[in-house]
Amino acid sequence: MLLIILADQNSLIFTKTIIMFKKFKVSDLLIIISAFLSLIYSETLWFKGERESAIFIGLWVPSILSFGIYLKLLSNKNND
Q1: Boundaries of domain holding 74
Q2: What is the pLDDT of residues 34-68, one digit of tens each?
Q3: CB 3.0-4.6 Å disulfide test: which of 50, 63, 64, 71 passes with 45?
Q4: Cα–Cα distance between 23 and 58 in angstroms, integer?
Q5: In this structure, is residue 19 part of a structural domain?
Q6: How far is residue 18's CA from residue 66's CA, in Å, rounded to a whole number?
Q7: What is the reported pTM?
């Protein structure tokens, strides 16, 4: 019984995630993908021992996401 409930909850979460991603525009996905790739690249550099470069590139992630929020606010303002 517990496994059935967990399976139902997991499928519900998966369904909600799919619905959420369908609401994204192409620009939203590009912003998220670029921030994620920047994070992965930064971590790769960190573990290779290039600490300063890793920190520099890691600082791009919040900047990229902030720029995405700014673009979203501008598009919402133009739609109103």
Answers
A1: 24-79
A2: 999 999 999 999 999 999 999 999 999 999 999 99
A3: 50
A4: 27
A5: no
A6: 24
A7: 0.69
